[in-house]
Amino acid sequence: MHMYLFFFLLGRMAILNGLAFLIPLLCAFSWGEPAYLYFGPSMAVTLVLGGLMMGFGRRHSKQLGVAGGAWYMVLVWVMLGGVGMLPYLFSGALPVADAFFESISAYTTVGLSCAVGPAGDVPRSLVLWHGLMEWLGGLNFILLMVTIIPQVSGCFGLTLSVHQSISFSPMLGRMDIAARQVGKIYAAITVLSILAYLLAGLSLFDACTSAFRSISTSGDAPFSFMSGGNPALEWACAFSMLLACGNFLLYWKSFERRDLKSAFQDTELRVFLGVLLGTAFLVSFHLWKMGVYDGADSLRLGFFHVLSFYSTSGFITADVSAWPDFDKFILLLIVFVGGCIGSATGGLRVMRFIVLFKIAAQEMRHLLHPRMVISLKVSGVPVDMKIISRVLSYFFLFMAVFFVSTIIISLSGMTPLQSMGVAAGCLTSAGATAHLFGVVEFSAEPAWLKAYCAFLMILGRLEIFSFLIVLQTAAQAFKRRW
Question: What is the model's pTM?
Answer without folding.
Answer: 0.90
